[in-house]
Amino acid sequence: MPKKNLTDRFVATVKADKQIDYFDTLEPGLALRVSPSRKTWSLAYTRPGSRARTRFSIAEYSEEYGLAKARKRARELKADISEGKDPQAVKEAAAAAAASAMTMKELVEDYIARHVVDLRSSGEVTRRLRRNILDRTHGLGAVLVPNLHRRDIVKAVDAVEDRGAKTEASRCFEDIRAVVRWAVGRGVLDRDVTLGMKAPQRNNARDRVLSADEIKEVILSLPTAGLRPGVDDVVRLLFETACRVSEVAGLHTREIDFKADLIRLPAERVKNGLAHTVPLTAPAKLILERLVVDKKDAFLFPTGEDTCLRADVVGNELSKAQNGIEAGNRRRARAATIPVAGWTAHDIRRTWATIASELGVAPHVIAAALNHQSVNSSVTFAHYVRNDFLAERRAAYKLVSAHIAGLLGQGAVVKPLIA
After folding, report:
1. DSSP letter at 129?
2. CA distances (Å), origin 206, targets 244, 280, 342, 353, 374
3. Residue 74 contacts residue 58 (beta carbons within 8 Å)
4. Residue 224 and residue 337: Cα distance in Å, rounded?
5. What is the pTM of this model?
6. To which H or E segment does residue 41 belong?
7. Per-residue pLDDT averaged across 297-310, rounded?
8. What is the pLDDT of residues 174-211, one digit of tens each?
9. Burial per residue of 122-151, b for 16 or more beta-carbon CB atoms within 10 angstroms, e otherwise
């Protein structure tokens, strides 16, 4: 821990490959901590009434908070210490006072604004937090932060599981644990109340693949299934593109390239962060051409001025169409309108991949079509092969599309490729 007469020039230009503290000789106790990614000011002092040495974080170095301001703040803190005031204790007391008046609703909204907003899946996580943790009946919103107890968490998670959503219940617990740990890290909570608790067991990984007869029944029933506008087109496009539901539901006119017969999904719209191109089959192109009519720089499935259809809405619509709706809560009873039950929109992606495999499409081409980073974990394939297999994928999409058309009675029966 070197001592140095700190100067503005030194503070602004100093760099370090590992964490190092520079103690100011002009203002004893003041330290500039330099790490590879940031610089912070702190004050080392002896806590009043004891011999214990500790460090108080003052602020992060910036053009606005430079050496002069750090020295001034250090002098103010040392004056308080000489009068018996402990800066660290004062800070902890202030945090405790703020937390005692804070509800979990306020904490969750703060967590969303300060942390979730930067996540790639921010929209999905935000909806989940507000729907599950802040549920008016069973949620934690009204609970004061210092009073949060395990039984409150169990009640909120059980309410989700009672809806028959085991996987969602597991995610609900993980979300609560993330909020709590974030609060502990910020000093809002003194301890992690979720420590030792276990998340509910998720549903087993799905392996549902629609059969040939089921594919035919589902697709033919879509126009008369009474689905929310746009959902039928989303489902039909899923059979033609093998995309994720959110990728199709969120399609924008700028992502459609009719000249190249491609959908161009940018990295920020894809789950794994890898930009993806999807060749257009003839049926997909017909649907998209119809959808883009009179639309300029807009979502293909709009739900508002600047919003689009969400994947969870598509899922809910399909669930209601498969299982019907019971009367109650101002809703009219409605019989099932899709004759095939027990499947989700994401199962279509698995079905497409299965059909492609049965038709002889190579595994690495299927993986590329699904935008999986690699079907082969070898170093050579994963790190050196940079082929997007576009030509092969075009052929695969055309093959699967023709197969589906044959199932619908709109084309010839497609035979598997000869290896």
Report:
1. I
2. 15, 27, 11, 14, 21
3. yes
4. 8
5. 0.58
6. strand 39-46
7. 90
8. 999 999 999 998 888 888 999 989 888 765 556 789 99
9. eebbbebbbebbbeeebbbbebebeebeee
For the chain, what's the residue count?
419
DSSP string, 278-304: EEPPHHHHHHHHHHHTT-SSSBSSBSS
Domains annotated for the chain, with CATH where assigned, are 3-90 (3.30.160.390), 101-185 (1.10.150), 212-314+344-407 (1.10.443.10)
Token code pair at residue 403: 């197969």
C-alpha span between 219 and 232 (Å, rounded): 9
Q: Give pLDDT, residue 258.
A: 95
Poorest-confidence range of 59-73, 120-134, 296-310?
120-134
* Residue 401, both tokens: 């599309």
26 close to 74: Cβ distance less than 8 angstroms = no
Angle at 185 between CA 183 and CA 186, to 5 degrees: 65
Give the 3-state secondary structure of 149-167: CHHHHHHHHHHHHCCCCHH
Rg (CA), the chain: 29
Residue recorded with tokens 């079905």: 351
3-class DSSP state of 54: strand
